[in-house]
Specification:
This is DUF948 domain-containing protein. This protein is mainly alpha-helical. The chain is about 95% helix and about 0% strand.
């Protein structure tokens, strides 16, 4: 009777460890997704700034002709 109960206990512990690891992976994946979204916003903002600066520079170049 000891061995079957030990096997059940070890199986339960194994599932508990897998559950904890799954939660940790989910939390880290969510954090990574938030960082990717923030970085995407920063890149888009920088691209818009670059586009505005290039437009102003082109207008200045046209005025010098």
């Amino acid at each position: 009777m000891f061995w079957p109960m030990l096997a059940i206990a070890l199986g339960f512990l194994g599932l508990a460890v897998l559950g904890v690891l799954a939660v940790r992976v989910f939390v880290e994946a969510r954090r990574l997704g938030l960082q990717v979204a923030a970085t995407t916003r920063r890149i888009n903002r920088a691209a818009e700034d670059l586009e505005r600066a290039a437009t102003r520079l082109a207008d200045t170049g046209e005025a010098l002709r």
